[in-house]
Amino acid sequence: MPELPEVETTVRGLQKEVVGFKILDVWTDLNTKDKRKKDTVANPKYFTVFKNEIKNKKILSVERRAKNILIYLSGDKTVLIHMKMTGNLLFGSFKDGPWGNSLKDRPFIHFIFYLSKSKCLAFSDIRKFGKITLLDTKNIQDSRHLQNLGPEPLDKNFTFKILKERLSKKPNGKIKTVLLDQSVIVGIGNIYSDEILWHSGIHPERRVKNIKEKELLKIFQNTKKLLRKGIDFGGDSMSDYRNIYGQKGEFQMHHMAYRRAGEKCQKKNCKGIILRKIINGRSAHYCSVHQK
User: Is 64 a catalytic residue?
Assistant: First the structure.
């Protein structure tokens, strides 16, 4: 799943390319009766409403909240997109873009915004888990999609004190699981939690209440450092993530733990091996020696 750096990379691309464009039309081949998606474009009835609401609206700005992309439109409307497991947004020209003559001929493109100036923004999603919905801008923070989210770890106001306060809400939780909890801190998923804990020397099954303050400080410092590094490298494309131009990020070239099971630990003078274990339903990769 795209995490904070991948979503931020996408948002920065959209800020550069789509602001000022008008949405002329939309298309989708999604069609589900899943009640959990009744207020998303995957529901045909909702899509009809969505289409009527956003046609001829102008894109004013684009922001990120947690792992959500927020596209602010004229008329006090906001499109919310969550890329989920395998989603990517692709921007380009309809006729001569990187996808050939017809976006609809691409098997994994399931939604298209047709924009002014013969441009388009397409949503590619292999597993069809992604979410696209429309919100009233003035009530956006009260929507179920954005409620109960924790603070942003790269916000300048996110301090070590705040990290300790947030983690203390789950004292008996295993640190790997707590870092993944979006109500505690947003934006961290499997990849970056593994890397943060490797760099901090913390075993993923350590209970929060048993982690010393100096160790928590390492987690705080490495959280900011590695999320920023992920952005600097254009995100992580170990799996399906691509930026809006269809290009891969490079953070996967700098993994120390994630998906390196069976390999020798790369920490200097460490004789450990990277292990993989399922913790509360999620995979964790960690060193057998220096993560304690």
Answer: no
